[in-house]
Amino acid sequence: MTLELILVKGGQLILSLSILVVLHELGHFIPAKLFKTRVEKFYLFFDPWFSLFKIKKGETEYGIGWLPLGGYVKISGMIDESMDKEQMAKPPQSWEFRAKPAWQRLIIMIGGVTVNILLAFFIYSMILWSKGYTYIPTKDLPYGVKVDSLGKSIGLQDGDKILSLDHKEVKEFDKIPVYMILHGAKTIQVDRNGQQVDVAVPEGFIRRVMGIMKGGGSFLDPNMPDTVPYVIGKVVEGFPGAKAGLQTDDRMLAVNGVSTPDTKSFLTEMKKYKSQTIDLQILRGKDTMTVHPVLDTTGKLVLLPFKTVTIHYSFLESFPAGVRMGVDKLNSYVLQLRLLFVSKEVKMTESVGGFASIAKLFPDQWNWLDFWQLTAFLSLILAFMNILPIPALDGGHVLFLLYEIVTGRKPSEKFLEYAQIVGMVIVLGLLLFANGLDIWRGIFGK
């Protein structure tokens, strides 16, 4: 990975996490202030030994730490990672967290998770409002699918039309591999030359599919025969084709004066002019015209040669749609976590990663749509991980508060201190494990 690529991906990761951390901590900060609870510190990133920036306003110190692993708010009278035993040894004061009613403390603790969930819903809603939702209908691929050697090894063939997985229709083509992984599909039903054929999914196949997906690939793609004309089905925004003004249904006629009557000849000519400006002759309706796109480094315009469906939403319609999308994304993530414990084909050492793995999810070029989509997904992950009933996380505090509300008995401060220590050890251990796997893969390439 080049230095430029590291900076692009790293910059997106840091900006995304900074947004998520600041808003998460605001979710604790705002209700704490509303309930007149003193907040001593509000920090983006951690500040052991020193901070990069700090300023005090009122009773709160605002700052930026040097260790970009998250952030925190330090609330007076709360047993947290600061382990301020000196303060806890004094009698409770009216402005302290521990002096507040249990229901107020509960609202303060769930505030961060609530903000992260609402943020994800809001981002998805705004994306749907501005861009709509585009997908490739599985049933509308006129030439079926094109499969690689992995797909052919289980009996799939070029031109097969996917009907269902375990007799359940998957309407969106891009979701087929993910559905197979999350639900452990055992069979694929295809239309082959007008006849329905069942293709068995053997043991070990799912794991190999996951390996391909980690590299950004897939074992099947929409099929585009070499002998048919190349007609644009979808222009991807922000890439060379869109910048050149190409449109859906444009037919490719010639590249730099060389006739390209079919897909094979068109793609062959394009590969000769990587990162160059070309004269591209096209047929738009009944008109022949020439455009001058600048190809990317692989000699592509980044077009889709098949039809897509786009669902458009009004401003008000986008909000329930955004919530549905967020719930669907969160459900998929939970199913992925479940596979770590129940699937024989999913190995934790291959599927778990730290900050480097997250950074790799961001695109190679800065793309705001991809950035916000991934930020929304990370916001859901942050909410889910924080609400787990592990001491030191928000969910651990919530668990003890629910116990207090139900039983009327508050756990002793000594118990909470020990629980906090245990939780910090667990969280630190998981952090070291996940990032250690990234380092291992970086050194040994596994």
Strand order in the sheet with the most strands: 11-10-12-13
Strand percentage lies at 15-25%
Averaging pLDDT over every residue, what do you get?
88
- How far apart are the first and last residues' alpha carbons, in Å? 16 Å
Count of discrete alpha- or pi-helical segments spanning 4 or more residues: 14
Helix and strand pattern: HEEHHEEHEHEEHEEHEEHEEEEHHHHHH
Domain count: the total is 3
What's the total count of β strands? 15
Identify the overall geometry: elongated
Structural class: alpha+beta
Parts with pLDDT < 50 across at least 5 consecutive residues: none
Sheet with most strands: 4 strands, antiparallel
From the alpha carbons, calculate the radius of gyration and give it in angstroms: 26 Å
Task: Explain this structure.
The chain is an alpha+beta fold. The chain folds into 3 domains: 3-128 and 374-444, no CATH class; 138-221, Pdz3 Domain, CATH 2.30.42; 234-304, Pdz3 Domain, CATH 2.30.42. The chain is 46% helix and 19% strand. It has helices at 3-34, 85-88, 102-131, 149-153, 176-183, 205-214, 240-243, 263-270, 315-342, 348-351, 355-361, 368-387, 394-407, 413-444, and strands at 39-57, 60-75, 133-135, 145-147, 161-165, 187-192, 195-200, 220-222, 234-235, 251-255, 258-259, 280-284, 287-291, 303-304, 309-311. The strands form 6 sheets. Strands 11-10-12-13 form a 4-stranded antiparallel β-sheet, with helices on one face. It has a 3-stranded antiparallel β-sheet with strand order 5-6-7, covered by helices on one side. The protein is elongated, with a radius of gyration of 26 Å. The two termini are 16 Å apart.
